[in-house]
Amino acid sequence: MIEQIKAEMKHIANPEKAVVLSRFFKTGKGEYGEGDLFLGITVPEQRKIARKYSLLPLNKLQKLLSSKIHEHRLTALLILVIKYGKADEDSREDIFNFYLSNMKHINNWDLVDLSADKILGTHLLKRDRGILFRMAKSRNIWERRIAIMTTFHFIKNNQFSETLAVAEILLNDSHDLIHKAVGWMLREIGKRDRETEERFLLKYYSIMPRTMLRYAIEKFDDNKRKFYLRK
Length: 231
What we know:
The chain is mainly alpha-helical.
């Protein structure tokens, strides 16, 4: 079945789009996506394939998620999201552990952003979340991004404390992709509770990376943005 999925994806591959995506996801030497390979398939097309093969068992899915081709990995994660949504509690635990054991393959920002909150976030909503703080301190950028993006599901449920705690850990992170993700999550808190977001900003805006701050205050009015950007 894996070969059938790969054949279907190869059939709809777009070499010109693959070149564009390779540049967009920074696959050059020394860049964050170095060596990643693209077929040039859109996310909606991958979602169709994921729905078609959503019954694929985890041991088969492992082969797709281990692929060097970006769209293979993303499609595998989209299948995993569907499986998690339909699974019973025991199966959800298996999927959660499968996700954690395969984080080395979840190695670009779209792979993280389209899966972390839907699997880890949902699973941890009523469970201990200590693992996120360990991930936030990881030397691996993608584990750090998974840590903050997982909390998006908590934010959607009006639970902000883990997001703020992880954001605090990541304040001094050196990578732009982490700055963007943290700023985005702070902005999402602000959509639901501006006071909570601003308490955090007033404490840290003067030391916060500029990109993180700009993302966090994107929805503020001009005067308030100017206030936070003066430093």
